[in-house]
Fold this protein.
Amino acid sequence: MRILIASSIDPKKVEQLKQQHDVICAFNAKEDVLKSQIKDREVLIFRSGVTISAAVMESAPELKLLVRAGSGTDNIDLDYVEKRGLTLIRVPQPGAKAVAEMAFGMMIGLARNIVHADSLLRRGRWAKSEMTGYLLNGKTLGIVGCGNIGTRVGRMGVVWEMNAIGCVDHLTPARAEDQMAHNHIRFTDFEEVVTKADFLSIHVPKKPSTLNMINKSVFDKMKDGAFLINLARGGVVNEQDLLAALKSGKLRGAALDVHENEGEGKISPLADLPNVILTPHIGAQAVDAQREIGERIQRILDDYSAGTLNPQAHVA
Ligand code: MLT
């Protein structure tokens, strides 16, 4: 098969695929490069960091299969995919484990000032008396977007003896029953989640209704001294409003893995604050998770070339 890999996936898998197929790699390329590289391709594999526009896909008359090596679909023109009848398969589960673990790590990092204490100690400051922190135990964990990733975060919070509450756009009765029975996350509305949370963790997809959804009016309603964690998408949290909420002391700290402006050389407006943790969209970057994504891609491609591809079978 003729495959274009437009984002970095497990390097060992890339090598294996190169032995099996005609593979071109153009990681994180701009639109004009993608348009030329995709011309004769049948399969496109991609993650975040590239934009798969209608123009890119239009350049590939033989394109049939798109594999999203992860979860989000905010960087692909879904209307075009549907209109042309292309097959798009996501591989959300392995990355969800990694993102959820990292969100939880961010909470502990924020509550105990781990990154700031580390940076002070590297400069010889033994700041033991200043570096007091907070327990997660007994606190309210609010999850905005209690789907695949958010539910995992909630489950971890419950084990930590947190009071986990969450909201989700489309809560089916079966999901509510299952999650309440097994995870002890209490479902409620957005309003209660943001007003009661000591730790507010954001896990919604980026779409018109979630753009800028965590803004000044939300920060104003939050508890004094709450923490915010965003591993969803840049643009969901208004960074200028967050900056103001942190500077005024309304929020005690924030951790962001995703940013309004992402990429080499971009500096967050929050970068000067010591009570903020910033990472470069690495939530799904756990080696094990990427290895599993690679294996799942292999199975998708094997099924596709055998003519037995059932997209539903690859979702779970
Ligand atoms: C995802 O949506 O799965 C994550 O953002 C990981 C990624 O593609 O980089």
